[in-house]
Amino acid sequence: MEKVQGEMEIERWERSEEISDAEKKVIQETWSRVYANCEDVGVSILIRFFGNFPSAKQYFSQFKHMEDPLEMERSLQLRKHAQRVMGAINTVVENLNDSEKVSSVLTLVGKAHALKHKVEPIYFKKFTGVMLEVIAEEYANDFTPEAHGAWTKMKTLIYTHVTAAYKEVGWAQYPTATL
After folding, report:
1. At 54, is the pLDDT very low, low, confident or very high (cuts 50, 70, 90)?
2. What distance in Å separates the CA atoms of residue 167 and residue 93, rounded to the nearest whole number?
3. pTM, full prediction
4. 92 membership: H or E segment, kind and range
5. If pLDDT is split at 50, 70 and 90, which confidence band does 50 have?
6. Chain-centre distance of CA 73, in angstroms?
7. Measured in Å, how far apart are the chain's first and last C-alpha atoms?
8. Is residue 113 within 8 Å of residue 171, measured between CB atoms?
9. Which residues pair with 3 in a beta bridge?
10. CB 139 within 8 A of CB 34
11. Residues near 7 by beta carbon (within 8 Å), at least 6 away in sequence
12. Given Cys at both, which of 57, 70, 93, 143 links 64, Cβ 3.0 to 4.6 Å?
């Protein structure tokens, strides 16, 4: 990822950039194909996420000891979580033209994960990166450079709003959280 000079190594995609109307349309069109298979895509994203970042499983008592991707794929709890994740993303995508709704949804997600689940916010950055990888691979024909640029802004939007919610609730670990 590209670093912005003079900003103490803050990664460029952590700063929220405006998503244009054309980019919103690209995101919504791409997402409509993804969401048609939301459970399977969501499961693929979670399996890749947990494979790449096994420490993230510590927050999930139902499947934190699972190592085998096939076992994870068959897990009803993992499938249910995949559906919730994809449902939240769908709400954001459907409401990209309503910034208050987007902010509201992502604030609720952030606060729940900060206060109830005690999930380190860095995992959202990792998750959105994995989400982008999986969508780009599974929908390669639809994932043009234009779509990739739009989705990069989308993952930034998600991460920025969620981490803002962490800051709002006074998440003490936020500034120094690392994996």
Report:
1. very high
2. 24
3. 0.85
4. helix 76-94
5. very high
6. 19
7. 17
8. no
9. 11
10. yes
11. none
12. 57
